[in-house]
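hi! just following up on the protien thing from before. the input was this:
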Amino acid sequence: MQIEDSIDASGDEVVVAILFGSLVLALIGAFIFGMVIFYQKRKIKNIREQQRLIVQYEQAVLKAKVEMREATLKYVGQELHDNVGQVLSLIKLYLSHPSTQEKKDVRPLIDQAIMDIRSLSQDLNINRVEQYSLVDFIEQELNKVQKAGIVKASFEKKGDCGPSNTHNRVMVSRIFQECINNILKHAEAKHIFVKLETENHHCKLSIADDGVGFETDAIRRGSGLINMYDRVKLIGGEIRVHSTLGSGTRIELCIPDS
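and the predicted 3d structure came back as:
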C-alpha cells in the first residue's frame, strides 16, 4: 500500500513538473513571439520613417532647385534691363550719329555687351550647381554681389572642401544664397566676409557681415532661418548663428563631405 501511495505521489509530481515545464515553455514562447512582433513593428516603423525622410529630403532638394532657378531668372532679368539694355541703347545712339570717331568708340561697348550676354548665358545654366564645386559657386555668387556695387565681399578658402553628393551641394548652395540675400535685404552691411575651410575633418562655411545684427532669439521664429535649419538637418549638418544688435552677424555651417 505504501509503495502504491509512493508511486502515485511520484506520478503526481511528474505531472506537476510536466505542467510547470509546459507553462514555462509556453511563457517563454509567448515572450519570444511578443519580442518578434515588437521588433518587427519597430523595424516597419523605422523603414517608414526612413522613407518619409527620403521623400522630405527629395522635396527639399526640388524646392531648393526651383528657388535657385527663380533667383537666377530674376538676376538675369535685372542684368538685361540695367546693364545690357543700357549698353545696347548707347550703341544705337552712337550708330545713329554721323561721326566716324564715335562709331569707332562703339567697339568697346559691343565687346562689353557680348561679355555680359555670355556671362548671363552661363548663369542661365541652372545645372551649374550640379556641375561646379562649392568653391566655384560661392565665387560666382560673390562676383554678382561685387558687380552690383552694394557691398564689398571677400572670400577666404583653405582647400576645396564641400559635399561630393550633388543634392547636398544644391542644398548648401541654396542656404548660402539665402544668407547672402538676407544680408543684402536686412543687414545694411558694408562688407561680407565668407570663409570655407576644413576643420576637424569637416567642411566649415562661415558667412559674416558688419551690419546692424539682430536678436537671435526673436529671429529664430522667422521662416527664413527655420528653413535653413531644416535644410541643414536634412543633409546631416549643423548651423550656428551668432549675432547681436549693432555688431553684425556670423552664420557657421558644418557641412558633411558626402
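Residues 248 and 254 are 20 Å apart (CA to CA).
Helices lie at 2-95, 100-104, 106-123, 128-131, 134-148, 166-187, 216-219, 223-234.
cheers
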